[in-house]
Design brief:
By secondary structure, the protein is mostly helical. The protein has one domain.
Length: about 140
């Protein structure tokens, strides 16, 4: 087993800054997926309420993108938590490869599927899906 070379304090701080930047971007992407899912669902609901005979299917079709955004959001949160684990390894001074950005080595214990089922993650997307289903039923 090889040990990671020692790096200077300045290099360690720069490495932490790089990882913090990635964590911020991943968190921003996750927020954007929630916003886009809600916006898309609102558009589908608005069109489904126009009264045309076939428009209720738009509400049904809106469920698929909501599920995809749900999965994307859960995966992004899983990656973010894994980067936080990497950040903690560096912050505490444990020897690791200098400037590594490989989050897979530090995967969060909850995988993406378990993350998707967490209440905080599931609530906005499940709410959107239920609303779309109700609108589809009422529009039929």
């Amino acid at each position: 087993m090889t040990t990671a070379p020692m790096i200077s304090e300045d290099a360690r701080i720069a490495h932490l800054g790089m990882i913090q930047g990635v964590i911020s971007r991943v968190a921003s992407d996750a927020q954007n997926s929630r916003t886009l899912a809600i916006t898309l669902a609102a558009a589908m609901i608005a069109v489904a309420q126009t009264g045309s005979a076939a428009t209720h299917w738009l509400a049904v079709l809106g469920i698929a993108p909501s599920l995809l955004f749900w999965w994307q959001n859960a995966f992004a949160l899983h990656v973010e938590r894994s980067y936080r684990n990497l950040y903690d390894e560096i912050r505490t001074g444990r020897p690791i490869e200098p400037f590594t950005m490989d989050w897979r080595t530090y995967k969060h214990s909850a995988g993406p599927f378990r993350t998707a089922l967490e209440f905080v993650v599931a609530l906005p997307f499940a709410t959107v899906i239920v609303i779309l289903a109700v609108v589809a039923k009422l529009s039929a």
